[in-house]
Amino acid sequence: MPPEESTVVNDYDLLADTYTRWSDTEIQNAYYERPAVLALAGDVTGRRILDAGCGAGPLTVALRDRGAEVSGFDLSSGMLDIARERLGPDVDLRVADVAEPLPYADDAFDDVVASLVLHYLEDWGPTLGEFHRILKPGGRLIVVVDHPFAIHLLQRQAGQQTDYSATYEWTETWEIDGRTMPMSFWNRPVHAMTDAFTAAGFRMAVLSEPNPVPEAEKLFPEDYRMLCVSPSCLFFVLQAE
After folding, report:
1. CB 238 within 8 A of CB 143
2. Cα separation of 50 and 33, whole Å?
3. Which helix (H) or strand (E) holds 173?
4. Residue 99: helix, strand or coil by DSSP?
5. Both ends of the chain: CA-CA distance in Å?
6. Predicted pLDDT at 3
7. Concatenated DSSP letters of 136-192
8. Is the pLDDT of residue 5 over 70?
């Protein structure tokens, strides 16, 4: 039977269960992105942290287990259902759109984590402005994005005539549990990212391109070697001025 097709773009409600199982165990999230975020966050004991685009909540759980007071939001109610099962009823989890005004008070958080979230947006300005608003003065914004040159290079190798210096939308088709669905993202050069951070009132404290954690080498030897020589993500720690 041919795969069932979905025409809904970025349908994480449909993907929720399968995507959660995948991201809990594969190298990209479980052994690369999340450990790097936690390392950059450092000691979070007693800090109030918002996980923006928290999905099913694996990073939210990890931050809570390290002593943070956590909140989270996501556009997908299906993903949030899983997050609520993991975190229980006492954690503030809300359905909200990262592209819209956020339902939090000014100066509400010590840290905001936006991991693999901003690549869904063409215009980062309003969202970064909201992050700045809800952060305490001197608070941190920890951002993870697709490495723009990695995306550009993959697309050039596939025969697409992409321009690294441009901000452009790109799409691909995911096949999950016998369904195919379109996924859409925005790629932009590093200078466009840093310009947006500065315009929103952030100072860059850290720019990181880490390796996966060492235990990934035995589990995913080929992927581990590839990520060590060709990183797929950029990691930023930004301070609200």
Report:
1. yes
2. 17
3. strand 168-176
4. coil
5. 56
6. 56
7. EEEEEEEEEEE-HHHHHHHHHHTT----TTS-EEEEEEEEETTEEEEEEEEE--HHH
8. no
Determine contact, residues 117/147, Cβ cutoff 8 Å: no
Per cent of the chain over pLDDT 90 is: 80
- Please say whether the dihedral angle defined by the alpha carbons of residues 217, 218, 222 and 223, taken in this order, is positive or negative: negative
170, β-bridge pairs: 185
SS3 200: coil
The 10s digit of each residue's pLDDT in 154-184 is 888 888 888 999 999 988 888 877 778 899 9
Is 10 exposed, middle or buried, given 0-12, 13-18 or 19+ CB atoms closer than 10 A? middle
Q: What does the pLDDT read at residue 2?
A: 53
Q: Residue 73 corresponds to which tokens in the numbers above?
A: 């939001």
Nearest partner of 139 among 112, 163, 169, 101, judged by Cα:
112
Residue 159: HSE in the Cβ half-sphere, 13 Å Cα cutoff: 0
